[in-house]
Amino acid sequence: MKTIIVTGASSGFGEAIVHKFVSHGYGVVAIARRSEKLHELQRKYPDQVLPLAVDLTDKGAVELALTEVPPLFSNIVALINNAGMSLGFGPSQRNELSDWEDMVNINILALLHITKKVLKEFVERNSGHIINISSVAAYYPYMGSNVYGATKSFVSNFSLNLKTDLEGTDIKVTNIAPGLSKTEFALVRFKGNKDQAESIYEDKTYLNAENIAASVYWAFSQPENVNINVIEIMPTGQSFALGFAPKSKRILDELN
Ligand code: 8X3
Fold first, then answer.
1. Sign of the torsion angle spanned by Cα atoms 210, 215, 219, 221
2. Stretch 122-135: mean pLDDT, rounded?
3. Which residues are marked as active site?
4. Per-residue confidence at 41, pLDDT binned at 50, 70, 90?
5. Is the CB of residue 207 below 6 angstroms from any atom belonging to ligand 1?
6. Would you list the domain boundaries of the chain?
7. Cα 124 to ligand 1 centre (Å)
8. pTM, to two decimals
9. CA–CA separation, 187 vs 166, rounded Å?
10. What superkingdom heads the lineage (predicted)?
11. What is the pLDDT of residues 191-234, one digit of tens each?
12. Which CATH class is domain 2-255?
């Protein structure tokens, strides 16, 4: 069975990507930390979802889990690097160093580890598609984005460089940069504070996880000779000021 690997598969974009690819007949190796959510997906799609409950920042555990993928799920046609997070919303001078480290660990290092592992197989077979989920924050700064935006700049730049290194091969690389989206992302950023998380969507249009899953599938399903390099996607009502600034100022005022 043609199979994709999705990281961060237990919620948000990742979960929507699982549904999308399953509905098109693909197998999915679904990676996340929260095993109950993964097992829910497996119960829903017992023949098509293989849950791998591992911490992506644990390089050895990821390597081992992928080595043990059963033959039914071993024909990997795409790696969707979706796992990532933003932590904290203040300006650099107030943010926690440990939050910065956690973002670098998951948004950059974990992505690199799994990419290196899967890329080896793709190169041996001369086929496969790596789709990285970046962010509009990679391109446009806003107050409170700091290290989050910088990690996503890394993802966007790495995607282009990976594409460059793979010149002459049949391996595809796509970078997808979503804007404001309604998922658990905001709740993680605000460390479980629902009011603050909800406030960033007030009076705004936003993307949903299905919009991003559709973009991923569209990029993936292009003809063999077509590589979609970059998709930048925003909700209709968002602008390059990213709409966060007034909210973040209000939140900062509340914090003070
Ligand atoms: C987050 C996108 O616009 O919410 O990746 O900063 S935005």
1. positive
2. 98
3. 148
4. very high
5. no
6. 2-255
7. 35
8. 0.94
9. 37
10. Bacteria
11. 899 888 888 888 888 999 999 999 999 999 999 999 999 999 99
12. alpha beta
